[in-house]
Amino acid sequence: MSRPYFYSLVRAAMAVGIAGAAVGATAQPSDPVKIGLMLPGSGTFADLGKGISNGFKLYVSEQGGKLGGRSVEYIALDDESEPSKANENANKLVKRDKVDVLIGTVHSGVAMTIAKVARETNTLLIVPNAGAGEITGAMCAPNIFRSSFSNWQPGYASGLLAAKKHKTAVTISWKYAAGDESVKGFREGFEKGGGKVLKDLSLPFPSTEFQPLLTELATLKPESAYVFVAGAGQVKFVKDYAAAGLKTSIPLYGAFITEGTLAAQGEAASGLMTVLHYADGIKTPKNEQFVAAFNKAYGAAPDVFAVQGYDAAQLYDVGLKAVKGDTKNKAEMIKAMEGAKLESPRGPLSFSKSHNPIQDFYVRVARGNQNVMTDVIVRGLADPSPDCQP
Ligand code: BEZ
């Protein structure tokens, strides 16, 4: 397989025996439904892509390998978290492979281009991570859904938490849509609680040269710090933060900074308080079943990315079931998905008018290899999405 366009076709018909063959060029409900998984398979966000893909496939296997009565064919493409390749990659899946649905992606910059392609071609898109506000804001469209969060949501909820204990904060983030929007959300929540952000520091994505920013942070002496970095970058950040002696002097807040990486971060992460829409130890039958099934299938505990992938599959299944697998009946599919009330491992999950999740946000504390749920900071949080005119 050739790089840089590492393109892997996983033509794995999941159901045992595909009933019937294609008739002419038009896909029939007896053909497998084609699912384009446009996710990072390499780079900083590779593990996030794997979690999403594993979560999606777990749900499908729980349905006997079928969604809406149709078997499933996966077409997987490594997007490399590279915005400059996103247009070509998304068009490959839509125009060459003729996927029925796009599931993608992790990186906000890449996802915005996927959303543009989805709008232009009226392809159904479910975003299983990237929080770019525009996707469910100015770019919102009937055929675009998100099973994860908007960047504003965890930022805002983190700001509410930090403001309970601190009056000042400095933020550090990667300079791209996700970092900018996460910090904006944090500021709004922090100010609502009476706090003041002294300064926003940033570095380019996916740089891990954190030292100059940590030095500046130390001289600014805020009561707290908020950071948006993710994936492999968060491992180095949390270790650098502890090594610089800041962990005890400037309490650190963040959303994703300990998600799925506690084993790699070790003692440096211990005790860190984070806010997300999933946590370890949510005591619902659905979550307990999900955690057990995920562990059995993959020999590892799930994280928020796996949950977002699982729920992307659940959401698509709701649409497909409503039309008995007839993907041409898009209007009915979309109507059913808009009204979906999912039992997610994260808790109750429904969708706002902009097709963004309405969900609870949990306070978690890093203990050993778990982000243990200790509280709910805000229930049923919806992105305001003022720019979405569906
Ligand atoms: C984003 O680019 O939107 C993103 C990436 C990783 C974690 C969270 C958000």
Jot down its keywords:
single chain, 390 residues, alpha/beta, 9-stranded mixed sheet, 6-stranded mixed sheet, 12 helices, 15 strands, 37% helix, binds benzoic acid
Description:
Strands 7, 8, 9, 10, 11, 12, 13, 14 and 15 form a nine-stranded mixed beta sheet that branches. Helix 1 packs across helix 11 (304-322), helix 2 runs parallel beside helix 3 and helix 4 (152-163) packs parallel to helix 5. With 390 residues, the chain is α/β, with parallel strands linked by helices. It has helices spanning 46-62, 83-96, 108-121, 152-163, 177-192, 211-220, 232-243, 246-249, 262-265, 285-298, 304-322, 330-338; strands spanning 33-39, 66-67, 70-78, 101-103, 124-127, 144-146, 168-174, 196-203, 224-228, 252-254, 273-276, 342-344, 347-351, 357-367, 370-381. The chain is built from twelve helices and 15 strands. A hairpin with a 2-residue loop joins strand 12 (342-344) and strand 13. Helices cover 37% and strands 22% of the residues. The model is unreliable at 1-25 (pLDDT under 50). The chain binds benzoic acid.
SSE topology sketch:
Blueprint: E1 33-39, H1 46-62, E2 66-67, E3 70-78, H2 83-96, E4 101-103, H3 108-121, E5 124-127, E6 144-146, H4 152-163, E7 168-174, H5 177-192, E8 196-203, H6 211-220, E9 224-228, H7 232-243, H8 246-249, E10 252-254, H9 262-265, E11 273-276, H10 285-298, H11 304-322, H12 330-338, E12 342-344, E13 347-351, E14 357-367, E15 370-381
Parallel strand pairs: 1-3, 1-4, 4-5, 5-6, 7-8, 7-9, 9-10, 10-11
Antiparallel strand pairs: 2-3, 11-14, 12-13, 13-14, 14-15
Helix pairs in contact: 1-11, 2-3, 4-5, 11-12
Bound molecules: benzoic acid (BEZ).
Benzoic acid binds at residues 106-108, 129-132, 151, 178, 230, 256.
